[in-house]
Design brief:
The complex is a heterodimer of chains A (about 425) and B (about 350). Chain A has about 425 residues and is of the alpha+beta class. Chain A is built from twelve helices and nine strands. Chain A has a four-stranded mixed sheet. Chain A has a four-stranded antiparallel sheet with strand order 3-4-8-7. Chain A is globular. Chain B folds into three domains: about 110 residues, Butyryl-Coa Dehydrogenase, subunit A, domain 1 (Orthogonal Bundle), CATH 1.10.540; about 100 residues, Beta Barrel (Butyryl-CoA Dehydrogenase, subunit A, domain 2), CATH 2.40.110.10; about 130 residues, Up-down Bundle (Butyryl-CoA Dehydrogenase, subunit A, domain 3). The interface between A and B is large, with 48 and 49 residues.
């Protein structure tokens, strides 16, 4: 091992290409999509699907580490690093768009993490089909947010038909509409619903179920109107006696006195938290670059290397923003590098999320403040990025939940010792 | 590639320095600060770890090559033990590393072997000036060309071990550009204050004021001089690394204390108010550590952006050190304010980094 900060060539090449996509397909229509919430930018959806298929990245934005060519020097895996870099660049373009990049998203991630080989084959194949296809994760409920153990949804096995009967109400399902509603231009997707098979067993009774698009008894009851990331649909989904085949349960269908089922879900978060961090960092970078550009137009150059006491207030702010942004990105890179190298990264992955949640909100808020009326005007995208950025500190575990995870890790405490 | 783990050699060095810091420097820190003196026995022991020696090539008496990455790793470990102790051990580097980075062949041959082959000896450097807007790129100490050589005039503060120094590098303004000059002990017009500096922290490090009145000196790098940017970046990095060590020390003390101290029937670490502070301290430390590593790596690999990155790492580290060491005291509560406990000294030292640039170099 060694300490090294050279971006791998495959990542650099991919970034050049994605930057073009970001500039030409995202930024150009960012404002329009922000003002027409719930509209679907089909051009982007179809382009990305075709592009990802042609690159052999079946399943959308997933871990896709090209094998080095034969005879080429062996190199360590970089799949997660590549994915984080992709997400950062797409979110630099428009985080709402990034979130609707076709593919399995969190739903497929749950299948990949907790499914059997048969389940993976059955459910994950579709993302590489002719049409763009989505999957979503349904975890949150009106009464259960960060405290996922409070989930009330129930799944009961009907032994006569060998089907699970699911009842419950899910909210804040990212991509829920595109995953469940059967659009002509989309392939058939699915949602992964978390429900208890034994409420008396607490967390160990929790299971995830694959619910196919169009399943009777399942309804999209609402699409949320949000502060930002408006191109991404956020659905409320109700399940009333929804029936799914027995084999759609992820993990063991019986309850044992362990929390392994739940730990499976949490392990998914270890993998995805740095990716959310990467997304927020992309938004913050867009804001910081815009700020510097506007300052430059007004003849202000940041005088790096001057001692702080000689800097203007604006220069100090910009320099602090650069420190925050770069260090958050390095934390994120380290977390995904650890994942690539099969090192346990629960601590680093939550740290990256804590830091990214903090800095993306601070940077976008400060950038709007510094640019005054220009920052606040809808003529430019900065005000949108301010709104988009806030979600970074909320979804995939709020900043507070992630502080709790970090604290438990560094103190060596269990959930019971540090609540 | 990206990679975030020290290599085997670096890890061995970190282990050795870490052991010295934990077993020798840490236990000595309190008494050294109160007694205004760091035991020279421990300084010699630290010198024998060979940090400087390992960064000087064989042809000049050392046994390795300089690496900023290895440097920041080692400095963090050492500063974890005690800042005054670490800076004492590293003082000869202020002279030697600058000569290595910027000196002429002749200067390297004259000074490096005798510094690295011998026992710890007081070779030092003078950069800081007594002004709120002190700027290493706009020094008030001046250098003028005079008959083939240079003469220096001005006043420097916070110069470690200046009283006994065999020779020191004085940084001065030569036609608007900062350059280093070698000044010998016996130079005419050089005077060192008899009294030591009295500062908020770092009282175990003997520092002096140095006055220069038309002092004859030789320019680092000879007539063509050198690029001060490289030296400044190496100072930025060393300060950032030292800040990491000091902050990590405070964090570790606070963490252990919070796991022992009870209130309301639980350990205070079990309270989110305390646990969240610790989580943020740990996150901040790791964030700035990676920033420092990256800048050091850029410097080692001749990247254009290295100088700006080092500045940013230093600036971030100054804030981080204050934030973390302040919380160290806060977590100890009233006990943190008592000088018997270690965190108040760490807070005093933690405040110093913006004004102590130039007391270490990697």
């Amino acid at each position: 091992m060694t300490i090294e900060f050279e971006a791998p060539k495959p990542i650099v090449q991919m970034q050049v290409m994605l930057k073009t996509v970001a500039e030409n397909m995202m930024r150009s229509t960012s404002r329009e999509m922000d003002e027409n919430e719930h509209a679907i930018p089909w051009d982007y959806v179809e382009f990305m699907h075709t592009a990802m298929r042609s690159m052999g990245g079946g399943g959308g934005l997933t871990i896709n580490d090209d094998k080095p060519k034969e005879g080429a020097e062996k190199r360590p895996p970089i799949g997660y690093q590549k994915l984080a870099s992709q997400i950062e660049m797409l979110s630099w373009g428009d985080v709402g768009y990034y979130l609707i990049t076709p593919g399995g998203g969190l739903g497929a991630a749950a299948v990949a993490a907790a499914g059997s080989p048969e389940q993976k084959a059955k459910f994950l194949e579709r993302f590489n089909g002719d049409k763009p296809t989505y999957a979503a994760m349904c975890m949150t409920e009106p009464g259960a947010g960060s405290d996922t153990s409070a989930i009330r949804a129930r799944a009961v096995l009907d032994e006569k038909t060998n089907e699970w009967v699911i009842n419950g109400e899910k909210i804040f399902v990212t991509g829920g509409d595109k995953s469940f509603t059967e659009y002509e231009k989309l392939g058939k997707g699915f949602i992964v619903v978390w429900a208890s098979i034994d409420p008396s067993a607490g967390r160990s009774g929790m299971r995830a179920f694959v619910v196919e698009a169009g399943t009777p008894g399942v309804k999209i009851t609402k699409l949320e109107h949000k502060l930002g990331i408006r191109a991404s649909d956020t659905a409320s989904i109700s399940l009333v006696d929804a029936r799914v085949p027995f084999e759609n349960v992820l993990g063991k269908p019986t309850v044992e006195k362990t929390t392994t089922g739940f730990k499976g879900a949490m392990a998914t978060f270890d993998a995805t938290r740095p990716l959310v961090a990467a997304s927020g960092i992309g938004v913050a970078r867009a804001a910081l670059e815009f700020l510097k550009e506007k300052l430059q137009e007004s003849g202000i150059e940041i005088r790096y290397r001057l001692p702080r006491n000689k800097l203007t207030s604006i220069e100090k702010d910009v320099i602090d923003m650069e420190i925050q942004l770069r260090s958050a990105w390095l934390l994120t890179l380290k977390a995904v590098w650890m994942a690539d190298n099969k090192k346990s990264n629960a601590l680093e992955s939550s740290m990256s999320k804590v830091r990214a949640g903090d800095v993306t909100t601070k940077i976008t808020q400060k950038a709007v403040e510094i640019l005054g009326p220009i920052g606040y005007s809808r003529e430019f995208l900065l005000e949108k990025w301010f709104r988009d950025a806030k979600i970074t500190d909320i979804y995939e575990g709020t900043g507070q939940i992630n502080r709790l995870v970090v604290a438990r890790q560094i103190l060596g405490y269990t959930g019971a010792e540090l609540r | 590639m990206y990679s975030f783990e020290p290599n085997e050699e670096q890890q061995m060095l970190m282990d050795a320095v870490g052991k010295y810091a934990a077993n020798d420097l840490r236990p000595a820190a309190h008494d050294a600060e109160e007694g205004h003196e760091f035991p020279m026995r421990l300084v010699s022991k630290g010198w024998e770890l060979g940090l400087l020696q390992a960064s000087v090539p064989e042809m000049y008496g050392g046994f390795g090559d300089r690496s900023a990455v290895t440097g920041v790793l080692a400095v963090e470990e050492m500063a974890f033990g005690d800042l005054a102790g670490a800076l004492s051990v590293l003082t000869p580097s202020l002279f030697a590393t600058s000569v290595l980075l910027a000196g002429s062949e002749e200067q390297k041959k004259e000074y490096l072997p005798k510094i690295v082959e011998g026992a710890w000896a007081p070779y030092t450097a003078a950069l800081i000036e007594y002004s709120f807007d002190f700027d290493p790129n706009e020094l008030k100490t001046t250098a003028k060309a005079q008959g083939g050589g240079y003469v220096l005039s001005g006043e420097k503060v916070f110069v470690p071990f200046a009283k006994d120094a065999e020779a020191l590098i004085v940084y001065a303004n030569l036609d608007g550009v900062t350059q280093g000059f070698i000044v010998k002990k016996e130079a005419q017009g050089l005077s060192v204050s008899t009294e030591r500096e009295k500062l908020m922290g770092l009282n175990a490090l003997p520092m002096y004021r140095v006055k220069l009145e038309n002092v004859t000196a030789s320019r680092l790098g000879g007539a063509s001089g050198h690029d001060f940017g490289l030296i400044l970046a190496s100072m930025h990095l060393a300060s950032a690394a030292a800040a990491l060590g000091v902050a990590r020390s405070s964090f570790e003390y606070a963490k252990s204390y919070a796991k022992e101290r009870e209130a309301f029937g639980v350990k205070i670490a079990q309270k989110q108010a305390i646990a969240f502070m610790l989580a943020e301290m740990a996150t901040e430390l790791e964030a700035i550590r990676l920033l420092t590593w990256e800048a050091a790596w850029q410097l080692d690999n001749g990247k254009e952006e290295a100088l700006t990155s080092a500045y940013l790492a230093f600036t971030g580290a100054c804030d981080m050190a204050m934030m973390v060491t302040d919380r160290g005291v806060q977590i100890y509560g009233g006990h943190g304010y008592i000088r018997e406990n270690p965190v108040e000294l760490l807070m005093r030292n933690g405040r110093g980094f913006p004004m102590l640039l130039g007391l270490a170099i990697v």
